[in-house]
Amino acid sequence: MSGFFMRKILVTGGCGYIGSHTIVDLIQTGYEVISVDNNSRSNPNILLGIEQITGKKIKNYKVDLCNYDDLFAIFLENTDIIGVIHFAAYKAVEESVINPLLYFENNITSLVNLLKCVQEFKTPYFVFSSSCTVYGNSKEIPVTENTSLQQAESPYGLTKQMGEQIVAAFAKSSGLKTIILRYFNPAGAHPSNIIGEMPLGKPQNLVPAITQTAAGRIPKMLVNGSDYATRDGSCIRDYIHVCDLATAHTLSLKYLEEEKNKTQCEVFNLGSGNGVTVLEAIHAFEKVSGVKLNYEIGPRRSGDVEAIFANNDLAKKTLNWNPKFTIDEIMDTAWRWELLLKADETVFKSQPGELN
Ligand code: WQD
Description:
This protein is α/β, with parallel strands linked by helices. It has one domain (about 10-345): NAD(P)-binding Rossmann-like Domain (Rossmann fold), CATH 3.40.50.720. The chain has 11 helices and 13 strands. The protein has helices spanning about 15-30, 45-55, 70-75, 95-100, 100-120, 155-175, 205-215, 240-255, 280-290, 315-320, 325-340, and strands at about 10, 30-35, 60, 80-85, 125-130, 175-185, 185, 220-225, 235, 240, 265-270, 275, 295-300. Strand 5 (about 125-130), helix 6 and strand 6 (about 175-185) form a beta-alpha-beta unit. The model has no long low-confidence stretch (mean pLDDT about 95). UDP-4-deoxy-4-formamido-beta-L-arabinopyranose binds near residues 131, 209, 221, 224 and 304.
């Protein structure tokens, strides 16, 4: 449209699981989007899937955010960026315990470089991807945004706590309008079944572990402990559909653009508000898929918190966010996506040359 300027958003980690689903929602809400993702832990072919769903080709700059000069060049080429959504980070809890410096270097350097560019180019809005892991092993359940943060359970969790403090301090000093979003347990796939989660290697997370076991890619799944003080002995989590998460990011940008923010840095819990045990999640999957899951009870996993789920009232009230996917729909979309992966019928099998 002549004269109609498209509000351009830079999404870091746009080829990742939550990043790709958020790009779909941003486009469908009328934003223009560019991605920066070095594809060290993501597949650029997911951009083909985004194009299939939205009809839009997304430009991805294959750049490492830890390289300041390369990142600066992207901002120089796109001086019309009005907002940044920062997803790109390493997020494997166990790996962070084994190699903490890798996590501090990658997750913190990339954030600082990004904020330096935001400062240089006076980008007005910034949304930071955080995690419920910042609450640690909280005794106050469900957690609200004011629940005090315990000692991080892993170096990964520590990088999220540090990241939040860096964003808050920079917002205060620079006047940048920021929002911090604390995800609970992201799961599920886009209802179109064209994009979904692509865990690298053996999945650590529950839902892909369930679907890969059901698809026969894993012989048997272990339930990590059934002697917790919960209703059935297994851990309680708050599973939130990736599309509900995506919508919250678009609503966050809208909230900032409309200057509704009360302070320079506001924090929101993005969870369904429902606590579900591991065994309940398995039973939901069996009900939805009709597949009997091959699992057995194993020992507790170190670092697991017994129970955590969100009080999501603040995001619902302030951002006008209404998560709508149920645990059954999470399992249904995750299962349909797994079957496509098993049939090797996804965009990921396309040859990279087909990207352009
Ligand atoms: C959930 C429950 C497991 C696999 C982690 C990160 C968090 C975020 C989400 C990045 C636990 C149990 C799992 C299996 C099992 N990641 N489980 N058998 O640990 O709550 O959160 O992922 O942002 O930061 O900490 O999620 O899905 O790994 O585990 O019994 O094969 O499922 O022990 O109780 P978690 P999860």
